[in-house]
User: Fold these one by one.
Assistant:
Number 1:
Amino acid sequence: MSPFARFYPNLIITTLLASLPLLALAKNPWEAVEIPSSQPPTSIGNYTNGCLGGAEQMPLRGEGFQLVRTGRNRHYGNPYLVDFLKDFSRSVAEASLGRLQIGDMSMARGGPFTSGHRSHQMGLDADIWFSQDARAAKRPLTPWERDNISAIPLADERQHELITENWDPRVPKILRLASEDDRVARIFVHPTIKRKMCDIAGDDNEWLRKVRPWWGHNYHFHVRLDCPPDDASCTPQAPVRGNPCGKDLDWWFSNEFYAILNGTAPKRPKPAKPSEPPPMPARCEQVMSAPPSLIDK
Ligand SMILES: [Zn+2]
């Protein structure tokens, strides 16, 4: 037994116990790695199966924005996303629309999450709260506040009704600023919020083309950028076509949709063999094994 072990047995046991959760996390190495790779910025793969080389960390606070849920260490993005978020927040501030609260972006090297997000894998997606905390407008939030204050829902997820007392007339103006930026590919919101904005917009609805109805998204909207120009390793999504407020919105209010939501839809026969998830792009191995970049932690 080493002299250290003789004198500090409890410390060693405590250290071993404390490292057990880390070992469990290592099942998903993308969640265990805490520092971006020292590589040129690259978004590799696609939004739901990819990774991120040379990520940049979003600053805690700046003109028109404040980060929330920083304890998760998910505020990394392609510098293309960081630049967009700074520009977008500045236009929100200049239009006197408040201070955005930015939640999850990507992990330090992107990649898949064990639970929660399907996308956010290559540093081009960000979640932003609909609600704004009054404290964040006046002073930096404390670390505790950043991880514990709550977002406010604008819609009831199950009933598909707007929560009228929570509705904020700044929301369509903020979303329009994002949607009219050429870098933005899609914005996801709850179907009820999309319908409300279509009602307000009337014929002036071209900007709503990129605003897509999706499950959840009653507390936050999700902004997805197109692939950065000249990033050949990034696979883009097809642009959204059709009427910006057309019939595809109706499905989200149909009996078929509510049957799925309430678990009363007829069960589909299970495939004999569950399909394997697609392999990650080969270049993601290099992202995982690259040395860490020198960032201030
Ligand atoms: Zn999201």
Number 2:
Amino acid sequence: MICSSISFCNYRNISLETVSFFPGVNVLWGDNAQGKSNILEGIYFFARGRSFRGARERELIRFGEKQAQLSLTFQKEGAQYPVTLEAELPQTGKKVLRRGGARLSGVRELIGTFRAVLFCPLHLSLVGGGPALRRNFLDIALSQLYPGYLDSLSRYNRILIQRNALIKSGGSTDTAVWEVYAQQLSRLGADIAVRRHTYMQALETHVREIFEGMTKGRETPRLTYQSGAIPEGDTSDQEQIRKEGEARLFSSLTNSIEREMRYGATLYGTHKDDIGIRLNEKEARTYASQGQQRSLALAMKLAEGELARDIGGEYPVFLLDDVLSELDGQRRSFILQALTDRQIIVTSCESAHFGTDTVQMLQVREGKIVGQKKNL
Ligand SMILES: Nc1ncnc2c1ncn2[C@@H]1O[C@H](COP(=O)(O)OP(=O)(O)O)[C@@H](O)[C@H]1O
Ligand SMILES: [Mg+2]
């Protein structure tokens, strides 16, 4: 998948600009606070349907303006024509999304159309940080690959919020109410868990290969999906795991209401799951060095790209926001090498690291592209 261009109108600090990319390495470079990450955020908006910086939509609109517009043109491998996606973000009211000029019903219809893998400094804590970060990693990757996934996830989260509200408000004496919640959460939760579990098994193969290449070492990473719905090491078929997972979750949810009432929230389900990461059979979060944790995190991100190709049929666009400057020379060249022959769009404060590569340098200043040069 190749992102050919993106146009902005009143988006963040960009009043009006079109940025064109070529299929190899594209470097957005310039001083701090010029709009480099804003451009990347705009591109990723179309992959995720929202900002990766957790910003509310209104914050994306240029100060003092009524609405922001962005439009991205990309080309799928082997496709004859490019596709244009558009977004209008108004100050009040709902955003409008379009594909090829036709209005989409919402993010769910958009997601999966244009695929991208994002690396940003936050991802370097993928191994050492909290479980929410790792669940999020899975959710974003899976949403782009399986149209139904985001649907199950949003429904699960909606029902979870309702159940938590019921717990906080003192509960219910009607067992049928709890059973309905347990039924819904366990069915959706088992769907989510099986997808994540299967994804993790496939991801692990790539992570191993990439990590071993990166460290040239004899250390072997092991990644497992840790879930109350799935016993560790389970290799039975998906439908079997799903059925058993559903039963397991249902029983946890109906048997622990008193504990949950004391605790004040739902204690069992996929919102508590995690990815277990070990290096040479030792818990990476506790035992691996900072450098090893970073290498593992990078390997997971690169593996995400590999799986996107295995499952989705072609490489996604790789977006690297400020990560290169965070890495030492060895990891930096590893990652750039690992990504040759793919489209990557990176931000950087300097233009130096890229002197000898085949790259397009785009200089960003005050929300504008002020210089464009290809070293081919
Ligand atoms: N809604 C907005 N309207 C106008 N400017 C904004 C808005 N949101 C952020 N900015 C500006 O964008 C700049 C930061 O851009 P960013 O892309 O993060 O910089 P960098 O080039 O360092 O990656 C800051 O100057 C900030 O004030
Ligand atoms: Mg930035």
